[in-house]
Amino acid sequence: MWKIKNKEAVSPVIGVILMVAITVVLAAVLYVWVSGFMTTTSGGVYAVSTGVLTNDTATKSATTAVVSTQPASGIKGTAITWQLWNVTSSSVAAATISGATETGTTVSNWAVSTEYLKAGCSVKVTLTGTNIGSTYTLKAIVGGSQVYESAAFTI
């Protein structure tokens, strides 16, 4: 048989260091796991994706369908600032941004709507100025950051 002469396994200092290290690693793993369940109510990453704007020069308007938003639950209408950018003159053009929700409820002005813009909604840009025949892009801005810009289109 073997006889053990030294019964100490690890010095107390190394044992304490190991326990602290294991605790820190477990706390970090727990934090990462729990933070995945948390959602922010303000701020966050916003994005809008729409289809092609189809224009109607007779009504001075262009309409598109929203393909997706980030977050998928939508972006509140009052949180979005819309700009109709006149590419021809490099200026913001006067326009009304209306449309409909994904359930078909009419939205007369997305900028003051308490509805949420999300997949299935429509956005209609109606030019209120006189620059017919100009080239435009539609921009959506949330919290000072541009979250959408359409391809160029002509009204």
Strand percentage lies at 35-45%
Q: How would the global form be characterised?
A: rod-shaped
How far apart are the first and last residues' alpha carbons, in Å?
Answer: 96 Å
Write down the CATH class of the domain at 47-154. Answer: Mainly Beta
What would you call the structural class?
alpha+beta
Q: Quickly give the CATH architecture of the domain at 47-154.
A: Sandwich
What profile does the largest beta sheet have? 6 strands, antiparallel
- Unreliable stretches (pLDDT < 50, length at least 5) are none
- What's the mean pLDDT score? 86
**Cα-based radius of gyration, to the nearest Å:** 28 Å
At CATH level 3, the topology of the domain at 47-154 is Immunoglobulin-like
Determine the number of helices (DSSP H or I, runs of at least 4 residues): 1
The beta-strand count equals 13
Order of helices and strands: HEEEEEEEEEEEEE
Helix content: 10-25%
